[in-house]
């Protein structure tokens, strides 16, 4: 495997800020650098190191999300008479949910969550380190009133992730069990879901729609972000 910064990015617009945010230590002190990294004794090669893997995962996540967003944009331009809205689809326990991508900053690999003493909110899990900055970590399971799942659904290949959401007072992190990607949903489907969804009265939910043979809760991001702000005060 080549180094993460050499991944095939054909058709992908990775900004300079994206690439600079990743410390390519393998090129400085690793096998492609001066080989002074003390972890080389243990790992032999950078590809066996968790730092390298995390960097690769982050780049691949960005690639997948931007590819899905590009497909959604293409879908929107194929028929100008059909308006669509981009939603990020993710799983919490057995339930699939969708949230508007306009409030999403990034999908990141799962990071350790450090608890805080004397927490005033049940939804506040603690803080997580996001590229050197400590960011508040909230439980959507608690906020949405869902039942915590002990394991992934049968047959699922679970890959937990963290969603970095743009809240009013700064970014917050929410752990999720799986991310499917960004999808462009027909506005007519969303309108029907907001009217006929049998669970539309559920907490912070605009409606329920059928997606890939599943019932998916479409979250009201305005109400959810307001609840996030309350949880942090």
UniProtKB/TrEMBL annotation:
GO cellular component, one term: cytosol
InterPro entries per record: CheW, CheW-like_dom_sf, CheW-lke_dom
Keywords: Cytoplasm
Transmembrane segments: none
Domain of life: Bacteria
One Pfam family recorded for the sequence: CheW
Domain CheW-like span(s) in chain numbering: 84-230
Gene3D superfamilies: CheA-289, Domain 4, SH3 Domains
GO biological process: chemotaxis; signal transduction
Compartments, record wording: Cytoplasm
Coiled-coil stretches noted in the UniProt entry, renumbered to this chain: none
UniProt keyword Transmembrane helix present: no
The name this protein goes by in its record: Chemotaxis protein CheW
């Amino acid at each position: 495997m080549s180094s993460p910064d050499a991944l095939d990015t054909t058709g992908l617009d990775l900004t300079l800020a994206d690439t600079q945010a990743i410390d390519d230590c393998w090129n400085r002190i690793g096998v492609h650098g001066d080989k002074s990294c003390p972890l080389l004794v243990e790992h032999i090669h950078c590809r066996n190191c968790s730092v390298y893997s995390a960097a690769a995962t982050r780049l691949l996540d960005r690639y997948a999300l931007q590819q899905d967003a590009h497909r959604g944009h293409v879908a929107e331009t194929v028929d100008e008479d059909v308006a669509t809205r981009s939603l990020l689809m993710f799983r919490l326990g057995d339930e699939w949910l969708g949230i508007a991508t306009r409030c999403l900053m990034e999908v990141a690999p799962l990071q350790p969550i450090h608890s805080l003493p004397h927490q005033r909110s049940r939804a506040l899990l603690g803080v997580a380190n996001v590229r050197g900055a400590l960011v508040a970590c909230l439980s959507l399971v608690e906020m949405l009133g869902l039942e915590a799942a002990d394991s992934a659904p049968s047959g699922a290949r679970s890959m937990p992730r963290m969603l970095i959401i743009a809240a009013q007072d700064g970014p917050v992190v929410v752990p999720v069990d799986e991310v499917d990607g960004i999808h462009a949903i027909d506005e007519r489907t969303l309108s029907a879901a907001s009217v006929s969804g049998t669970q539309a009265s559920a907490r912070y939910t605009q409606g329920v729609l059928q997606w890939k043979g599943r019932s998916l809760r479409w979250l009201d991001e305005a109400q959810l972000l307001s609840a996030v702000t309350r949880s942090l005060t």
